[in-house]
Amino acid sequence: MAQLTGNKKVSTAVFISGRGTNLRKLIKFSRKKNSPISINLIVSNNSHAKGLKFSKLYKIKKKVVNFKKSSLFEKKILQTLKKNKIKFICLAGFMKLLSKKFIKNFRGKIINIHPSLLPKYRGLNTHVRVIKNNEKFSGCTVHFVTSKVDSGKIILQKKVKIYKNDTPKKLSKRILFQEHKLYPVAINKIFRSNS
């Protein structure tokens, strides 16, 4: 489990692959006085990720690792994390699976946000599947990362109603809005329960 040491903020890395909307919310949250984390590194497997612009905007170090080979990618990332004394990792729209070995290095210290009410609809294309199955609700989940996709212990969830005329795009937008609110609350919950 992640530990909060005194009043010192926990050095955190955020992993992204795309727009970085959750990243931006997490940066704003981390800059609040009572936030338990400090975001010191942005990591991406995609050099074209739009979210990388927040590195410049908020003066946060970034590392882009484009290796197709997972073992090389992870070796490089682990070196960077160590160098920057990272103790906690938030995955925010990171579209690469991390290996068992990598996760072991950060046991109980990697969390992810997923756009469904886990354990339902793990993996990709959640909004399409949810609508196709005529579900009444969907939502988002913050959970600990394990080597099984979207299967770690659930920290917090938020339910979102599905309307008759919903499209995956409309639903995605409403769920993303809730993700932005849920992620910081979940982080607070982790560190408050451990302090």
Please write out the topology.
Blueprint (H helix, E strand, L loop, with lengths): L9 E7 L4 H10 L6 E8 L8 H5 L3 E4 L5 H14 L4 E4 L8 H6 L4 E5 L11 H7 L4 E8 L9 E8 L6 H27 L1
Parallel strand pairs: 1-2, 1-4, 2-3, 4-5
Antiparallel strand pairs: 5-6, 6-7
Helix pairs in contact: 1-6
Characterise the protein shown here:
There is one protein chain. The chain has a single domain, classed as Rossmann fold. The chain has 195 residues and is an alpha/beta fold. The longest helix has 27 residues, at 168-194. Strands 3-2-1-4-5-6-7 form a seven-stranded mixed sheet, sandwiched between helices. Helix 1 runs parallel beside helix 6. It is globular and about 50 Å long. The N and C termini lie close together (11 Å). The protein has helices at 21-30, 53-57, 70-83, 100-105, 126-132, 168-194, and strands at residues 10-16, 37-44, 61-64, 88-91, 110-114, 137-144, 154-161. The protein is built from six helices and seven strands.
CATH topology: Rossmann fold
Q: Given the C-alpha coordinates, what overall shape results?
A: globular
User: Whole-Å distance between the termini?
Assistant: 11 Å
Approximately what portion of the residues adopt beta-strand conformation? 15-25%
Q: In which range does the helix fraction lie?
A: 25-40%
Can you name the CATH architecture? 3-Layer(aba) Sandwich
Number of domains: 1
- Classified in CATH, the superfamily is Formyl transferase, N-terminal domain
Topology as H/E string? EHEHEHEHEHEEH
Report the total helices.
Answer: 6
What kind of sheet is the major sheet?
7 strands, mixed
Which strand order does the major sheet show? 3-2-1-4-5-6-7
Question: What's the count of strands?
Answer: 7
The oligomeric status of these chains comes to single chain
From the alpha carbons, calculate the radius of gyration and give it in angstroms: 16 Å
For the residues shown, what is the average pLDDT? Answer: 93
Structural class: alpha/beta
